[in-house]
Amino acid sequence: MVRFLKNIYLTNRFFIFVGSVCVLFVLGYFFPVFGALAKILLLALAVCMSTDVLLLFYPGQAVEASRELPKRLSNGDPNPITISLQHYYPFEIGLNIIDELPFQFQKRDHNFEGSLAPKKRTEISYKLTPTQRGSYSFGALNIYVSSPLGLTERRYRFDEEQEVPVYPSFIQMRQFELYAISDRLQDIGIKKIRRIGHTMEFDQIREYVRGDDVRSINWKATARAGDLMVNQYRDERSQQMYSVIDTGRVMKMPFEGLQLLDYAINSSLAISNIALTKQDKAGLITFGDQGCKIIPAQKKRTHLYNIQEALYNVDTDFMESNFNRLLTFMHSKISQRSLILLYTNFQTIESMKRKLPILQQLASKHLLVSIFFVNTELDDLLQSTPESEEEIYIKTIAEKFNYEKKGIVKMLNRHGIQTILTRPQDLSINTINKYLELKARGLI
Predict the structure, then answer these.
(1) Among the listed residues 67, 80, 79, the one whose alpha carbon sits nearest the alpha carbon of residue 143
(2) Residue 228 shares a structural domain with residue 242
(3) By its UniProt entry, which PANTHER family does this protein fall under (predicted)?
């Protein structure tokens, strides 16, 4: 009986009906005819409600539903979720589906309303975009069913306590991999880099295609084949690349829902996958105030799983990162000259100058690329027209920050350190561009 009462709900139509009856009873106090009409309507309401409850509860378990979740969600990307529903009522039903989302989304009114023909099956799809890594717990899937009378609803509950982990953006990683394999990276903003000379390994001889470098024509093969033939080269392989991620408090700054750390993590996963696709060795280093962790560089495709699992657990420690400890750690762990992609964020020239001697020492042994971020929150201020003294002051400060970022780039370049100053949203594309550029120039 308790279970029955818990699953029955009164609708707005019922309360409107009851309210109308109450008004008629009040009027019946002054005009008896309204009182008689109120009693008739009250009896009709009781009969209709009993019929409604019987229609909804007599068939037993007349609704089957399930929430179909992927094995894991991709951080920062829209992830598809599907609700499948089948009902066996012999009449058209009204539906109100409330899906209890994880608390990280802060949504308490995620519902779908509609109707469904007799004994039909349907699927409802929606997308969720998580902005934090970790375990997400879904609550119950609540289905509220009403008959054509619409006075009451019956509740069904399914799929309680489903959990799914949110990993770094593997959707973005697969997207870049697909374009890299099909040689269409320029379609998503990856620049086509002109190769300087022939510093690559010989791959094969193939037919000439319009656009090929005429200096690559193999005249002996052309004479034998009777058609223009060119030498095709491939990039040197087994080169070592490390993504080095600063987990200090400077990476806690949020942009469009994601922290800078999450942008760096997503980019590291994407560039590691591209490096492994190019048959280079990819590794990972994270550092903060307390210590450093390393995933040694390897070229096996299965190594990407190790990098992904390590990135899943990375978090900031809200402290100032220790670059001296990073320098000592890298000297002891990395003996081969490598490409170092350092994800950090310099807010001022002074903060960069304190770390510059360490960066110079790293650049003397490795090819160092320092990656930091444009503050996109300042864009509106920089483009606005100030109308008061306060707005002039705020815009001046914004221009100062913007000027200092460009000054940091120039100072690092003067000391032989490659740089990427990028919007957080463009981080992965700009990082892959730089990686392909350095390989094309034979600098790695």
Answers:
(1) 67
(2) no
(3) BLL2464 PROTEIN (PTHR33608), SLR2013 PROTEIN (PTHR33608:SF3)
For 361-379, write each residue's pLDDT tens digit.
999 999 999 999 988 777 7
CATH number for the domain harbouring residue 146: 2.60.40.10
Scanning 140-206, the segments in alpha helix (DSSP H) are 170-181
Mean per-residue pLDDT over the chain, rounded: 87
Q: Which amino acid is at 172?
A: Q
Q: Are residues 103 and 150 in the same domain?
A: yes
Strands laid side by side in the 121-128 sheet? 63-68, 79-87, 121-128
Are 376 and 278 contacting, i.e. CB atoms less than 8 angstroms apart? Answer: no
pLDDT in tens, 146-172: 999 999 999 999 877 889 999 999 988
Non-local (6+) Cβ contacts of 121 within 8 A are 84, 85, 86
* Residues 6+ away with beta carbon under 8 Å from 430: 420, 422
Q: Are residues 247 and 348 in the same domain?
A: yes
Contact residues for 278 (Cβ-Cβ < 8 A; gap 6+): 180, 235, 237, 439
Instruction: Note the pLDDT of residue 207.
Output: 85
Burial (CB < 10 A; 0-12, 13-18, 19+), residue 400, is exposed
Do 84 and 162 have their domain in common? yes
The answer on 369 and 395 residing in a single domain is yes
256: which 2 tokens? Answer: 């469009």
Same domain, 265 and 322: yes
Can you give the residue range of the structural domain that contains 49?
2-57
* Whether residues 273 and 361 fall in one domain: yes
Looking at the structure, do residues 34 and 100 belong to the same domain, yes or no?
Answer: no
Total tally of structural domains belonging to the chain: 4
Strands of 73-74's sheet in order across = 73-74, 162-167, 134-138
Q: Which two tokens stand for residue 330?
A: 């890298």
Burial (CB count <10 Å: 0-12, 13-18, 19+), residue 129:
middle
Report the distance separating Cα 300 and Cα 237, nearest Å.
13
